[in-house]
Please model this.
Amino acid sequence: MNEFLSLKILDSFKKIFKLFGINYEVLRIILKTKLTLDLRRAPAINTNNRRKDEEQTSILKGYLLHLIFGVFLAFFIYFMKDEMIRMMYFSGAFFFMTTMYLISDFSFVLLDTKDKNILLTKPLDSRTVSLSKVLHILIYMFRLNAFIAGPSLAAMVMSNGPLVIPIFLFEILMIDLIIFLVTAFIYLLVLRFFDGELLRNIINVIQILLTIVVTVGYQIAVRMIDFTSLQDVKYIFNTTHYFNPILWFGAPFEIVFHGGESYLYVFTALIIIVPAASFAYYLALSKKMERLLLKLEGEGRERPAKHRIEKLVGFIINRNEVSKQAFHFSNAMFRSDRSLKLKIYPALSTGILLPVLMIFNMRMRGQQLEATGYEYLYLYFNLIMFPTIYYLVNYSSAWKGSYIFASSGFNNMENVYRGLMRSMACRFFIPLIILNGVIYTIIFRFRFTMDIITLLMAGIAIMPFIGKIYLSVPFSMPIDESNQKDTFGKFLLSLGIVGVLAVLHFFSHSVTMGTGIYLAVLLAVILTGWKFIPEKINSLPIWQKR
Model:
């Protein structure tokens, strides 16, 4: 096994560790094991699922998205000339992205209690185990900083010379300390008043938000940035800025290169005082946090009063007992399977954002959008998201439990699929179309109300047909093996169905009473199409293949 560069660097401090009574050999073995496990763990925002027979991911591949973001950020701040504005944008973006990455991709280390349960049962010094955790976090933060902040450092050296290097590195260290403390205090606050289940849900929400930001955020950012005007932006001081840490980090650069006002020296002092005081407070609370982390060992439980609306909807739209139970089971899976949610919600966010991005790509006249009358066709991007969701519901992190379908004697899957698709409609598809409809209504002042209703009916109409193409045994395959490269033909078929509906919708506007006729056709398709839901499984589940 190749040695890690971080361990080789750490070897040079071997004598210092031994001077403080740390068993360095044991410390190194623990760290090497942790870093090896990191390579085998897929990042939260990893979009290319790895097969079991693939080799370990290199560090560069694992941090590729971090590097892309870092290059984009460096290109962005390179055009800024005002030191305060430059560092304000950099520290804001760096603080946000690093916090999101730390919570979503490294919370398993910050909140881990299993390593102590394993290691402290052995004849090991508790200081060595605790130090291994701290060093693991520092190594992760160093890698994260190198890929996110490294390109920005190069851009600032090109602008101001090598003098920025020590100042920049010191500020990165202070930002990292603030980020770590903010993250720890969030965990402490949540665990103080709630159970570990809520904290897991918060981490999962942040993972979803991070995936959405990385997936579609750059498309919005590129359209919003006017690089030609960045050079003219100037910082204007306000007393309230003393309470905004994002604005502090430009002060040392402003003092070094341009001299400065008294408030710049206050900002510089705050950069040192606030992280140091917060860290001292954190050390005082560290033992309390260790006790609170024990809450994570429990699974938590839902309140009985929850999901009353969901139960009422399931009772109304499901008359068959099997479809009713499949409806509730599917909703429970969509709520509890965090890995599945991490796949589904970014796809839904793409369906929401694509029509909006298409609108803002239209020509602008003053402050008003120039509507052509055919913007409703952009909403069909919502329906293009349906195949992706259908494909993903065949996967789950709890796929081994899918044997229950066979053991329960489900020879006819029609009612199971019916309940599943109704759950998907209520939880994903109808809210997706309604949300885009609300956005369109706000922008275009009720101009496309009838078209939104038509799209909603079209989405309900095509659900059984896309289900016939994609559905297998629900939640029956490992989520890590979900890869849509082998479903391109199915996607083209689904795209053709959506394209036919969009063409029919378009031509319905050119015929007298065409919209009413088209709605009647869709209603007929809904009434008849939902009667032809697949009865048999399209492909064998993994527990039958093996």
